[in-house]
Amino acid sequence: QLFLSTSRDPGAKAQIANVPQWTTSREWTRFPEQQSAVITLQAGQSYYVEALTKEGGGGDNLAIAWATPGSVTP
Fold first, then answer.
1. What are phi and psi of 49, to 5 degrees?
2. Is 0.90 surpassed by the pTM of this model?
3. DSSP per residue over 29-58, as a string?
4. Does residue 10 sit in helix, strand or coil?
């Protein structure tokens, strides 16, 4: 699960993405809910980001990426 706050306040966080089943490392597009809707961030502003992961067995990984305006996700 990936959470983002509109500020540095953790109390304002909202879930923006989720990986419902296992994926390989950096497999960004296996499930639609792995990617959030477009969120505009302001340069110089601090934001609270929280990622939760759970291993059910076998390998585990956690990676987060974002795209800048005009680019695509990695």
1. -125, 135
2. no
3. TSSGGGSPPP----TT----EEE-----SS
4. helix
